Amino acid sequence: MNAKLRAEEFLSRTSVTLNGPNPWDPQIHDERLYDRIFSGGTLAVGESYMDGWWDVENMSEFFFRLFHSQAAQTAPLLSVAMVIQLAKSAFLNLQNQKRAYEVGRRHYDIGNDLYEKMLDTRMMYSCGYWKEAKTLEKSQEDKLDLICRKIGLKTGDTVLDIGCGWGGFAAFAAERYGAKVTGITISKEQAALAQQRTSELDVDIRLQDWRTLGGETYTHIVSVGMFEHVGPKNYRVFMQKVRELLSDEGLFLLQTIGNGKTVRHLEPWYDRYIFPNGHLPSTAQITKATDRKWYGEALLTMEDWHNFGSDYDKTLSAWYENFERAWPDIKEKYDERFRRMWKYYLLQSAGMFRARYIHLWQIVFSKTGMVGGYASIR
Fold this sequence. Notes:
Blueprint: H1 3-11, E1 27-28, H2 33-50, E2 54-55, H3 59-67, H4 80-91, H5 102-108, H6 112-118, H7 136-150, E3 158-162, H8 168-177, E4 180-185, H9 188-197, E5 203-207, E6 218-224, H10 235-245, E7 246-259, H11 268-273, H12 283-290, E8 301-307, H13 310-330, H14 336-354, E9 358-366
Parallel strand pairs: 3-4, 3-6, 4-5, 6-7
Antiparallel strand pairs: 1-2, 7-9, 8-9
């Protein structure tokens, strides 16, 4: 069976048709696409879109229909690139301290101008909370307030923000709750702008990797959208560090994108173009990182687990609308191939969250369990 027929057979198990009439049907511009995809896997799917070999009017819906189908679980796209990733992930620590700053240089440092135009005014680069929100701005404010309420933040508390980004949470917690916040990031551009944006507040922003922290104790710890860069070989070490830095009565809130299954490899396209060395944890990997080892003490006690992954669909769609609106102002700095890459990244991700193929979790941990229990907040 030739590659085109294989593609048609695969898509017959979805509601997507090659060159079909619907806005989610891909339109093929280069017939070499089929051989390229079946030899290059998911990396080739993304790269061929960047190269203009195919288009689709409604990309997020296209990916929703793919990932919502059973076909996505059996897609025959194991490529050389993925085999290499599997081997590297098995034998190497791809997220070690030496490599930690790579994602900062290649993703977060590409231009504060891009992120300022794409994100909300607080520059939160993580999922908003849309329970009562109608706008991106409100969803991010509500998310920040939700975090503060979940950890019981109050005036005078000290908070460590691991992966503080451009300082959005740190500023909010200091302004609204009177907290003293220390934020760390591995991005030079983020650190510089975060320091500028929080200069009048009780906030300390540092360019620092989490492994180098020590000698301080915090009332609470939060990590929002950073755990995706920690990697499975480091999950337990990360949780040990959190336990070391957290006060005995304090709470740790982890917000992370989660994978619906346990994997060890990196998705090749995202690894090459968006988040180098990234990895989405599964529920099993997170719980294993905090559980008892034989008869020892658990590192942390899970008090609450909140999944609102469908809200990331709305967040990513809002980011894409802002990006497209801002394109005339930034296109001199970023070329058309970058525009297609960024569109593919944002809208493929939106489709995967819509399909519930990947998730967004807020997890609250205590050190040894809250006496009387933890009251879940939504």
